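[Automated response] Your request has been received and processed.

Submitted sequence:
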Amino acid sequence: MPILEEWLREEKPDLLCIQETKVQDQDFPVQTFQGLGYEAAYKGQKSYNGVAILSTSPLEDIACGLDDGEKPDESRLIQGTFQGISVVNTYVPQGKAVDHPDFQYKLRWLERLLSHFEKQFDPQKPLLWMGDLNVALEERDVYDPKRLEGHVCFHPQEREALRRLIEWGLVDVFREKCQEDKAFSFWDYRLPKGVERNLGWRLDYIFATRTLAQKILSSSIDKAPRVKERPSDHTFVLADFELS
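Generated structure:
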């Protein structure tokens, strides 16, 4: 929280999507964010998962979870409308290991998300999809693609599932403005000096439908918070749009 509060004061984004909050709704720090000038929409649970959207004006049409009759996983998806733009924030299941049942659950979850987009949104209208997707899309999005090929979060089936979502009508905002290799948003605590050695992954994304992607001014990854004391293992992905 101290890092997040400092970052919000400095950057003053209009909209921020947060994943893996790990906090029950009654304990979400609403007043802290209100004091910083933000409305908060959130859905959480004890110890695991949790998603939230902070915005400088109220979020409308708030909904949580994949409403398709299967396990809803409400604390993995929250959506709403911000200044006329549909916003979807997701924390995609990690999958644990390729031979673990959770990996198949992850693949199914991504299929369900595509169906969710097809039913609820129009690729010709403004939409932002953001989140920790737990998938590195390209070889340049992992620190050692040869060794990591086929591992969870860099498995061909996951990458194909993400590509199908993109083909629905989305643009990878960061890649629209930055072609740098080894530009990462996540560094595993378990790797010794992982940040210093840049042993990272790009797992966090901002996607936009093409009508909105035409208005991108810039996009970047802010690595600085990751080297502060007691940081998250993920850092901030940013995008600026000219909407006027």
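Summary generated for your ticket: The two ends are 32 Å apart (CA to CA). Helices lie at 2-11, 30-35, 101-120, 145-148, 156-167, 173-177, 210-213.
If you did not submit this request, please reply to this message.
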